[in-house]
Amino acid sequence: MKIITANLNGIRAASKKGFWDWFGDQDADFLCLQELKAHAHQIPPEAAPDNYFHHYHFAQKPGYSGVALYSRLQPTGVYIGLSELDPDTDWSDMDAEGRFVMADFLTPNGTTLSVISVYFPSGSSSGQRQAIKMTFLERFLALMKRLKNDGRELIVCGDINIAHQRIDLKNWRGNQKNSGFLPEERAWFDQWIKAGFSDVLRQLYPEKEQYSWWSNRGQARANNVGWRIDYHMCTPAIAAKAQSVSVFTDSWYSDHAPVTAIFDDHSASEVEQ
Fold first, then answer.
1. Integer distance in angstroms from the first to the last C-alpha of the chain?
2. How far apart are CA 113 and CA 218, in angstroms?
3. What pTM does this model have?
């Protein structure tokens, strides 16, 4: 089972840069996209391959946010937006921004595998946005705990907009007061781990210096001055099957790089065809 997550910083721009040509060679089972920056009528034809089911959550604001989830298998259920999944919580602020798609797949033993494409809000633009981000984190963790306690296996893919540990960004000393590496954000991430979710890249490579986003300013990309903010977060049974996680930087389709996780054949065979 091969799952790719990628923040495209505009699906139309990434298409012009050859993203879909690259994806066509990947033989992936799932693709999770963030920052589509488009509405339905603006999705390029090559971004809707015939051999994948695809589901989108668009932002109300033109040219902003938006996520997508592609799967080779037809889901048994799809949730567009957090309110559809969690109606008892007020998600109207985040759903207006197009940040969440989840697809369910049944396994032969009756377990539900849920694959999520999510784009966490950033707090870097203002104190108000940081406050919104922190309330999102609280609501999101409560939801993830409930889904896990319901017996689902979960693979949460996306741009989390948090570097969890010092190893996850180059200039950690200078960013301790900046959104994305604040102590309270990192403490929240600790709680997500304690809730039973694994960061599969860090699980496999505890000491690897690996980034997934680079600023367009200066020579950040050329000097590999980056942040790791794109993740695959999994419940234990799925995380135990992770074989590799890789970041593709041979070509550039965005300020983020695609991150690919591969799980063993046994986990792939558990999903009903």
1. 13
2. 42
3. 0.95
Token pair of 110 as six digits = 């009756």
Note the Cα 215 to chain centre separation in Å. 19
Q: What is the pLDDT of residues 66-106, one digit of tens each?
A: 999 999 999 999 999 999 999 999 999 999 999 999 999 99
As to burial, measured by CB atoms within 10 angstroms (0-12 exposed, 13-18 middle, 19+ buried), residue 101 is buried
Tell me whether strands 67-71 and 100-106 are parallel, antiparallel or unpaired.
unpaired
Q: What is the pLDDT of residue 265?
A: 54
Catalytic residue IDs? 159
Q: How many CB atoms lie within 10 A of CB 37?
A: 22
Q: Is 216 helix (H, G, I), strand (E, B) or coil?
A: coil
Q: What is the pLDDT of residues 135-172, one digit of tens each?
A: 999 999 999 999 999 999 999 999 999 999 999 999 99
Task: Give the residues across from 232 on adjacent strands.
Answer: 157
Letter string b/e over residues 113-146, b meaning 16 or more CB atoms within 10 A of that residue's CB: bbbbbbbbbbbeeeeeebebbbebbebbbebbee
d(CA 187, CA 148): 20
Report the alpha-carbon angle 176-99-243, nearest 5.
75
38 Cβ neighbours under 8 A, 6+ residues apart: 10, 11, 12, 58, 63, 66
CATH number of 2-269: 3.60.10.10
201-219 per-position pLDDT tens digit = 999 999 999 999 999 888 9
